[in-house]
């Protein structure tokens, strides 16, 4: 089945904005500028402020939802009106998980490479599968268990590649190991978030863009308020600012004022997360959930290739093996092998995508916030 121009646009938008999201955050981390009070040049390491910006991008998804709602009403689409009443506080627990997991990942991104960061996020499959069995009463298919085992093997290979790679003064071996472990810890929290969303949010038939927007609102407000006590909490070696505190938002604003390109990187991060969420949900509706998974895997390749081209990291052949194993695990867990086997049985004819398509307003069952 040939893709339309609109479907190609959505696929390209998801791939580009998803790549920009990680690359822009890493780009901001690579800048050095003076801080407040004439402090000497130092790296822009403000993960919690960056997380606030990401939640602002998620919050903007509410605008996209209401635009779609107005359009659907003009076209007499009743799917918008069938949503059950719900309390916005329903989204507070997953929003807290999102806030914690995202903050940990931004801290980790300061310590490790962008490609390893993206690859190690595949660990979410392991914990999501285990938690869905424990708390949702699901039974995983043998292929899903095999996918989990493959993902574990892939994570070991990627971690080994990080250990054997050459490290510069910015990314010491101890920092890389700590960063990799923080990413995996963050995936445990993200998996809890996904289980909470499926257990409580989906039963109310909430549109994914609306759910992302509400969670973004909670994350933005709560984390913005937490920046105040973080300004005074000592963080020792985990701090990246001259004052040695958990976060110094004033220092960040001073650095942005002295190096305007940091503002451009932050703006790219904020806007890309909003467009990525919209494009991802639209791809699921217009094409399939499998297509979305494939595009998300391609995003890792783009991030890896650009990081190498920009000289942000050194090439290690083990990363290729690790990525292939992780991709295999993701494919097995998400059932990508089924349409491939169907193609072989049908003499390489491409099966219809109608069974995989999901409606944009009401019936999506993909993780509503798997793009942070």
Automatic annotation (TrEMBL):
One of its GO terms (biological process) is negative regulation of mitochondrial outer membrane permeabilization involved in apoptotic signaling pathway. InterPro entries: EmrE-like (IPR037185), SLC35_F1/F2/F6 (IPR009262), UCP036436 (IPR012404). It is found in: Membrane; Mitochondrion. Residues 1-18 form the signal peptide. It is a multi-pass membrane protein. The chain crosses the membrane at residues 48-68, 89-108, 120-138, 145-164, 176-196, 208-233, 261-281, 293-312, 318-336. Interacts with SLC25A5. Belongs to the SLC35F solute transporter family. This is Solute carrier family 35 member F6. It comes from Peromyscus maniculatus bairdii.
């Amino acid at each position: 089945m040939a893709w339309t121009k609109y479907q190609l646009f959505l696929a390209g938008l998801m791939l580009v904005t998803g790549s920009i999201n990680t690359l822009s955050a890493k780009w901001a981390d690579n800048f050095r500028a003076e801080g407040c009070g004439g402090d000497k040049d130092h790296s822009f390491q403000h993960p919690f402020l960056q997380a606030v910006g990401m939640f602002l991008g998620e919050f903007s998804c509410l605008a996209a939802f209401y635009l779609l709602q107005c359009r659907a009403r003009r076209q007499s689409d009743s799917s918008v009106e069938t949503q059950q009443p719900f309390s916005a506080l329903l989204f507070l627990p997953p929003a807290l998980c999102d806030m914690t997991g995202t903050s940990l990942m931004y801290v980790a991104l300061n310590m490790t490479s962008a490609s390893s960061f993206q690859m190690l996020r595949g660990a979410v499959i392991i914990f999501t599968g285990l938690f869905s069995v424990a708390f949702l009463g699901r039974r995983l298919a043998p292929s899903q268990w095999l996918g989990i085992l493959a993902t574990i093997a892939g994570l070991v290979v990627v971690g080994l590649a990080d250990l054997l790679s050459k490290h510069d003064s910015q990314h010491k071996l101890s920092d890389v190991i700590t960063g990799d472990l923080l990413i995996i810890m963050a995936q445990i929290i993200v998996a809890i978030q996904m289980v909470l969303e499926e257990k409580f949010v989906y039963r109310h038939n909430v549109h994914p863009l609306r759910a992302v927007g509400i969670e973004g609102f909670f994350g933005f407000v709560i984390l913005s308020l937490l920046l105040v006590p973080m300004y005074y909490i000592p963080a020792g070696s985990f701090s990246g600012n001259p004052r040695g505190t958990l976060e110094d938002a004033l220092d960040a604003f001073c650095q942005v004022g002295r190096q305007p390109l940091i503002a451009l990187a932050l703006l790219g991060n904020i806007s890309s997360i909003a467009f990525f969420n919209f494009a991802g949900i639209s791809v699921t509706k217009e094409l399939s959930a499998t297509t979305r998974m494939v595009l998300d895997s391609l995003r890792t390749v783009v991030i890896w290739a650009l990081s190498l081209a920009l000289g942000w990291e050194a090439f290690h052949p083990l990363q290729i093996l690790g990525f292939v194993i992780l991709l295999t695990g993701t494919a097995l867990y998400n059932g990508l092998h089924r349409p491939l086997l169907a193609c072989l049985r049908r003499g390489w004819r491409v099966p219809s995508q109608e069974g995989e398509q999901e409606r944009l307003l009401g019936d999506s069952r993909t993780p509503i916030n798997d793009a942070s």
